[in-house]
Design brief:
This protein is α/β, with parallel strands linked by helices and 182 residues long. The protein has helices at 2-5, 7-32, 46-49, 62-65, 95-110, 144-158, 176-181, and strands at 39-41, 52-57, 74-78, 119-123, 128-131, 164-167. Strand 5, helix 6 and strand 6 form a beta-alpha-beta unit.
Amino acid sequence: LLIGNQAQIIRQAATAIAYLDVLTGLVELAATNSYIKPKIVSSENKSMNRKLSIIGGRHPVVEQILVEKIFTPNDINLGTKTDLIILSGPNASGKSCYLRQVGLLQILTQIGSWIPAESATIGITDQIFTRVGAVDDLAAGQSTFMVEMIETAFILNKATEKSLVLLDEIGRGTSTFDGLSI
């Protein structure tokens, strides 16, 4: 009964401790892994708000699991002159890793964290949309291709000019030109 009467205070204390735990974890990660403070762009200039420029970026999860190898940093520059990148290459060449890295660094920036990179200038997005991996719903009569098309249509209908859209392996199972048109 005594504890029950203090439930609200206990919940508030637990929430505050949880926030501190997350912030402490982000600080420790940044300090021990050479993270940098990204420059956040917030401007009246629409083209600058779309900026996503990362030099020497690293995938924050993959670099932690590599034991005998060092993660090879990479760059991205979107939103000023380039708004679209079509990334192609052989299987297992790191395309999906790169795509996920971009999304993770955007999220880390927007939650106020430092990020694994040499430098970064990042605009705030209103939404992040992803379409990653091949999934079907055969029980509902939907092939992998149909699921991809439904999810892609959803993204195209909901994305704004301030959204970050990351599409991985769209149009698989179609002809080359159908895949490219998607």
